[in-house]
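Researcher: Please predict.
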Amino acid sequence: MDDRLTGENPALTEVPADASAPTPEPPPLDLRVPVWALVLALAWPALLQQLLNLSVGFSDRLLAGWYVQTPSAQAALTTASYLGFFLSSYNVLVVVGSTALVARCVGAGDRDGAVHFTGQSLVQAACFGLVGSVIGLVGMPSLLAAMQLHGAAADFALAYLTPLFALLVFQVVEAAGIACLVGAGDTRAGLRVLAVVSVVNVPLAWGFFHGVGPLPGFGFPGIAIGTALAHTIGAFYVLALLAGGRAGLAIRPPDLVPAWPAQRRLLWVSVPAALDSLALAGGQLWFLAIVNRLGDTASGAHGVAIYWEALGYLSGAAFGTSAMALVGQNLGAARPDRASASGWTAFGLGAATMTLMGVVFFTLAEPMFRLFFPSPEQDAIVREGVPVLRLVAFAMPALAACIIFTAALRGAGDTRVPLLFTAIGFFALRIPLAYYLTLDTVDLGPLGVVPGAGLGLIGAWLAMVADILLRGVFFTARFASGRWRTVRV
């Protein structure tokens, strides 16, 4: 057996000698509670948390749609939302390892290990956050150009993204703290944090946009300033919860000194998952560059359709959160059968919820677009967007499999094989197919120019749905194989 997983390995159990400060015991893993009840108990706070997170984007879209009624602003916000997804994928560098290892320790009854990994996760988050800020601020202009965003749309996007990258470290620390609490079985704390972020974000974003009271009016960039400051407040709130011993975790000063054994174990789990998420995000940015070639109207329609589709996506993410925590805890408690049941139950409930969302998308697509584009001058965006939102409604069950089984596998520490699935789905299927279906002609470089289907935005979404269906099959098969039960972390 790989000694990285045995209880005798100091890399797993080593904590600083100065650990005299008492900390509450983490909640025990209650095997008497039905799996479905545990899944729902963890999922509903995570779902509300995701919806609160989505409400931030909702407010931003309303501001841009009502007061900056130009396709360039909508195209910029679409690109910014994709880069926001990229930042979430960057957070995976600390989130997955934190949740998986804290969950294993909690499942095994190792209080000191859970507390130690919490402190080390926060240290890692601060480091990655600072590095991400520097890279983002320096590389943004080149990245926007590579994504085929030019002129006024690029200027809007640059102004919007600057405050988000400048305060990125707080968003990463916030995500890491919430991830540790999820690993301990506490999803309500994350709900409280995101509730505060959402409540604070709306007045800050609107205030910095219009210039209300003492707040200066920055216009379009003011939306992002409000969002960045709200996440900064969220970071301090989650640190306060941990300092108070929430869910049996704590912040002990000795644990805030980088310890290589713990850092290595966190990275061992997180890096493959982060590569998977970053590959997914990179593929999304490439995909958006194809859409941006179609012009600002198509890009704006695409962004709003993606925003509404996120209602389904985030529903799946909530059940994925419960799957990740329960799979990790049950494997730590040496109950792989219950870990498997947790994954399948989370998928069943999540797929049902997302399918219901799909019915809503298909039925109410046009009024959902009209909410953001009420004026007749914006009819072109509505005409572009309604068909693609109705199309993705049919992919909801497969998308549920992608999201929930990915999270369940990450909870088990199985983060390498999913990277292969992402590479095949995105780079071997979605991107080539999007070029062909979207454009009138496709430049193959030395191979010459070949004709494309020229379907425009609907062609891009056909390629996206094909990728979701393929990866849904892959992830379902991987979880059903049970090989994740023996993965060593």
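Model: The longest helix spans residues 71-107.
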